[in-house]
Amino acid sequence: MCAHVLVAEDDEMQAELIRRSLLAEGHTATVVHDGAAALDAARRLRPDLVVLDLMLPVVDGFGVCRVLRGGDRSGDDIPVVMLTARSEEDDVLLGLELGADDYMTKPYSPRELMARIRTVLRRSGRAVGLREDPVVRAAGLSVDPERHEVRCEGEPVECTPAEFQILLAMVAEPERVFTRRQLLQCTHGFDRASTERAIDVHIMNLRRKIETDPRRPVRLLTVFGVGYKLSGGRP
Question: According to the UniProt record, which residues make up the DNA-binding region (predicted)?
């Protein structure tokens, strides 16, 4: 079984570490970097759990939790695990009083965070109703992180480990623009010799495998000056 976890963390490297840890556990993840985006994603996506950093821009974690627990049914039953660099007792108590289900103080162990998430999901009762299908789908693509399988319009696609990790990240968040650095982080542990420019090669190879015409891609699109994104619509 897996959960859909919303990660609200403004530190991109920390957010990517959490996202990859969640994927390794069989979960799916949506990552946002400010409080306003966290509230919007919580309302639209109704995740099974929110990992919420307190020091978010725009709206801080306290504000996000206050709105989620405000009783408008937009997110008052979604479990929240808070991350904080603040160890003061008053901050921790305030977070718990606002309705956080658990908290961790930075720096923390990713393995311990995953264990806390499992505990909160079980305690909240959401573990009973978690989606048993871990496959993520978008744009005619399906990526199964448990079986390590990719299909395009139902047909199997052979991918290298690095290509698989890049595609998994992009299919899980269609329309999100990924920088080369972010995609490179996805391949760490699978392609240690890779560089940011090597991401271009991975994208080119993926286009050969999933695009009808790799020279005129309709799925894996270049966002000039930024990076790449997966078009969320069907080609």
Answer: 133-232
